[in-house]
Amino acid sequence: MRIKTPFFDGIFPAKRMAEVISVMALAVAGFTSYLLWEHTRDTTRVLQLIWSLKQEQRMTNCIMSLPVDRREAEFREHNSFCNRMASGLNPGWAYPKTRLGEN
What we know:
Blueprint: E1 2-4, E2 9-11, H1 14-65, H2 68-76, H3 81-87
Antiparallel strand pairs: 1-2
């Protein structure tokens, strides 16, 4: 079998050609595996980034929904209602239940 490319011109017997095709297929399979592995690692990093951004957005929304005098305290407390809500933990009750009209 004759192979003619811009870089190589030669004749290979059929057995040798089968070996060349096998080696090329192995190289393509290895390269594809590498690409999939890197894609999986990159996807994991992106998903972790999205998760952290989602938590920060929840925290911001929670703090903005609070009265102005409580915002700074909620932001600084480690185990505050907004921190628990942003991390997905059960926040419990933020404020005691009141009757309508009471503050």
